[in-house]
Amino acid sequence: MREWNRSVAFITGGGQGIGLGIARALAKRGVRLALADVDEAALGRSTEELSSVTEVEAFRLDVRDRDAFASVADQAEVKLGPVGLLFNNAGIAPTSPLPELSYERWDLALGVNVGGVVNGLQTFLPRMIERGKGGYIVNTASGAGLVAGSNLLYTTGKYAVVGLSESLQQAAGKYGIDVSVLCPAHVDTGILAHTESLAGDRSMFPQGEQRRREEEAFKAGVSIDAVGEMVIAGMEARAMWIYTDGFLRPYLSMRMEALLEAMPEATGQEVS
Question: Active-site residues: which are they?
Fold first, then answer.
């Protein structure tokens, strides 16, 4: 059983959605929280709620800003102590028709969904390694990081986070640092409304009937509090992949069957 009480967690996207669900689950276990979010109003609400349960410090942070990330990390550790639990959770869900793709749209989507994870790792990993006391890193990807959808902006970033996490688990183990990747399906987070303002471009988000269908699908998904408890359970089990439900099972099966079917028969030669 992992010792949670008085440990320190840094959570990006911690003011709302899955980040808030994780924060609530950790707070109940006595973990001190550093919440980072680009939405100051959400940060204020989550801090007010969780301060009655545990120690909380809140920081406005755009995860694409490396200098700000380092500054916020320094402040968090001065106020709360060394961060041993890192949750690279901040993310957005933009989309774009192929004819409307642009460098600016790629930069936004990958800057937050991949760059934000890289910045979190590069900020905190050296500190964890230098202290020699291990740690735990949970990166939030998506089911779209395991089974490709038609949304290039989102799928590309989430596949990157899954691969990064799988590789990191192999590399970080010798330092006593555990790694999991969260691959949620539909979760009731309000992600479309939360991230539309960051993009400043309504055409990067579904509108009309498509928007209504997608929002209904998210609302019908599991709650953020349920996901928070799933993350804790996954960490206790040191699970590589943490899922929120069985939605992906048939699609993963089809993908794996197709991958194996396309592979030539083994020749007996070693692969270098």
Answer: 154, 158
